[in-house]
Structure formats: structure tokens, C-alpha cells
Amino acid sequence: MTVGEAPAARRTVLDAVVDDLRTIRELGLARLHEAEPAALREVLAARSAAPAGTAPVPDDGAADAAAIEEALRRAAGSLDSAQWRTAALATFGFLPGTRELTGKERRERAAAAFERTVDHFRKEPERLLVRQVAQALLENRAPAPAAGRSAPDGRTGAVVCGPLVPARAGRHPVATAFPHGTVTVTLHVTPIELLEGVDVLVSSENVYFEMSKTFRRTVSGSLRRAGATKDAGGRIVDDVIARQLGAWSAHTGAPAPPVAAGTVAVTQPGELSARGVRRIFHAAVAVPSATGDGYETAPEAVAAAVRRVFELAGAERRSGRVRLRSVALPLLGAGRGGLDARTSAETILGALEAVLAADPDWSVHLVTRNPLSARAVLDALAARRP
């Protein structure tokens, strides 16, 4: 078996490396010495004579654990998006604090990077993730740059970067450069339903305006649950926000066909009014996937929704009905919506350019409960600094 064979044989090599990586994923880096990754050893041995910048292999042609670990770290760090890189690094134990975790605990960290449940992540994204890492190993890719933490490797010209470091929980005000000037954008690393004193909370919805179930940890499900009226036993007696969203759809004639991606509906906040929330704006950005599994989100839909949110909020403020000044946006389309956190953040910031140029007095908040997604947001904000 050699690297660089005909496509049919290459697939056989790829499948063998995938099997090796699944074993390594289960064992973890701390028990890498227990693995017997025969296919991966042969791949690295065949590469050992090439000046590709990877860790050397022993003279007997069998790669030791250190060489395998270095090659795997490089491959996991080379995936195209920050979300996939973070999940890959968590899966194999390269993120800080994950090396000694069990396979189950590392899977939970990787699923969190996708904002998916562990069961959903295990059934499909994890299999695809491991296969992508195997492909990267065969192609001997260099790690992709991580914004703000990359440096050129003088020997190979490749970019060497560390793993994505989770952002700490809490509130992060960031002075952010826009074409018209500098604006403070505040990132909250917390569940959106726990925010206080923000006038508008934006919920990410699908184009059918069908809110998530109240037991889901999605933005939509969390806001639906937090806004509902409950009895003394905690049971929902009035599903306020979902009921009002249904009424909005019925009033506009949108219950049967989907609305256009980027459409925004407005409801009252229900019980969230106790936290100072005045409105919930529902941004329809997620389109059911053609394969029937999950959703797809176009960045253009996210940008249109952001512009519409501020257009509606501005109109309501000018009408004198309620003085809306602060808006909290989740990472629209990220997680189950199909976008990675960095792409969502950059799209939102791009849409805010015209919004804030027209009215720089808006107080803008970005929010995610995922500390890894939060780091991607901080990187996107930092990339805008002069």
C-alpha cells in the first residue's frame, strides 16, 4: 500500500486510515501507544524521505507515537473552517484540557463546537469529520491559519498555529473598527435567555417559522422556553412566544409556504420582560437541507436578516411606541444552520457596517453560549482592528 496510487486504491488507503483514526479517537492521545495504526504508520513511513515539514519517523519505517501525534495535530488543524478545526482538535484531544478526557467527554466537546446534541453529532458529523482528517493526513496539509495567532514557518512557508482557545464566560466589550469609525460591540458568552437589560433579542429560525422544541438548547428553543408562562410545577401553560409567532404567520398569510430567507417577524417577549427584554425578533435564515438532514443557511440570508432587524427596530422607535436602542444577535445560521461561527460573525459584522453608519447610537451585542464559537467571534472582531 502506497500513497499516491490510482483513485480506487487511494480510497482503500483512505478507508484504512479512517479505521486507524477511529481507534485513536476512542483511546485518546494519552493512550496512543496502545493503538496499532498500521495504515497510518505506512503512510508516514512512505512520507519520511520527503521534506514536508512533518515530524520524522524512525529509521525502521514505523512511526512512533510522537510522530503520529504531530501528523494528526497538523491534519486536524488544516480543516477549512474554524468550526471543523475546533471539533477535530477536540475530538482527538488537542484542545487545552482535553488530552486526558475520555472519548465520550471529547465527543461532547466536539459536539458543542457544532452546537449539536451528542447523539446527532455522533451519527453523521463525527464520521465526516474523521474522514476529512484522514484525507488531510494523506494530502499532508499544513495547519490552517488561526486569526491573530499565526506565524510563518521559515523552513516550509507553511502557517503554524495553535489550537482554538475557548473564550471565558461573561461579557467582553470590544472596540471594533467600521468604515465610519470605531464602535464598541459587546460579546456575551452565556445563554441568550439570561441576558438582562437588552431591548431586542434576536432568535434564529427556519423559513417556516417553526420554533425549536422547548427542550432543545438552540436559541429558538431556549427563548421559547424562557418566555413561556409556567405553573407552580414548571409546566408550560401559555407558550407565549410561539403562539404569537404563529399569529404573525397567520396574519401575514405565511403559515403554509415558507417565507423568503431573511424575513424577520416580531413578537412580545413573554416572561422575558422581567429581564428588561422588550421584543423578540425572529430571523428566518435556515432552509431545510435538500437531503432531509439539518438545515442550510446562505450568508446572504443572514446579512438580509440583520439589516431587516435594525430596520424594524428603528421604525418602531421612530413611531414612539417603544424606545428600542439595544439589540442582541446570536450567531445566525451557525450550529444546525450549517454555517461555522466565524463565517456567521463576519457576515453579521459586514451587515452592521451600513446599519451603524446610518445610526451609530445602536448598542450592539453578540451572544453565544459556546466558548469555542465565542473565540471565533473575538477573532472576527480583532481582525477589524486598524
TrEMBL record:
Residue stretches making up the Macro domain: 174-385
Bilayer-spanning residue ranges: none
UniProt-recorded name of the protein: Macro domain-containing protein
A Pfam short name: Macro
